Amino acid sequence: MTLKEVQDILNAEVICGEHLLDREVKTAFACDLISEMLSFASSDTLLITSLTNPHVIHTAEVMDAIGVVFVGGKKPSEDIINNLDHGNIPLLSTPLLIFNACGLLFSNGVEGCTRGKAW
Amino acid sequence: MHERKGVVSSPCQPAANKPQLTLRFKIDEKDFLIAGESASKTKKALQQLGLKQEIVKNIAIIVYEAAMNIVIHSNHGEIKIIIAPDQVVVLSEDVGEGIPDIELAMKEGYSTAPNEVREMGFGAGMGLPNIKQCSNELDIKTTIGFGTTLRATIYLNPADTKQVETGTMYV
User: Fold this and answer.
1) Nearest residue on chain A to B63, alpha-carbon basis
2) What is the pTM of this model?
């Protein structure tokens, strides 16, 4: 599915990167630990997290994430949004909590990452 | 050339007749933001050199994890990314407490990071295992009470790094 479909399914608000919503989402990874994101998440993966600090944006950039969905209605602060270079990473915010967001995406065909696919 | 706190980019003298380029990041205690920034800047620089996406990602992850280790576990330190046509070496040197048990530190999930670090999403006990996974060779030397030196080597296909020979790069 596309990021636009992800937005619809999760009733998500697009924080930035509206022009990139035609990207295809095949896999997703949900986590609140930076090192686990770096270790397990494969490239071109949708990152789902409740962390909203600037480290998450850097991590998404390093891991070549296709986009980030913040759960629980959370959003990074204006400072983070304005000061970080996140031009190629769309950021979305859903009111859903992490389990429900993952369940909806999984039941609609988005697969999880497995370690063997990490690199 | 762009230069700001903790970030230096400079061509350096070739060693053993191999043209090479070194990126340097000075890292202070508790400067958490520099870890992600150094990884992002390393990634952009390596992309400019035309390295393959997966190699760039692996090196960026090594830099990220090594920088976080300095931020969390040492007083201060420096990371150098030495880029040669046939290999990239990430050299991390810190002044700090050292690693009491490297074998234990290499185990996934083992962490001595304090709670405030974990609340930011760090301290998962994956740092050194991640570095090892992303490296072809990893060498760690540590002295309790003095600090730790980490050297991670990633071998390249020489054809991927022709631009290194120009010796010019901006981060």
Assistant:
1) A62
2) 0.82
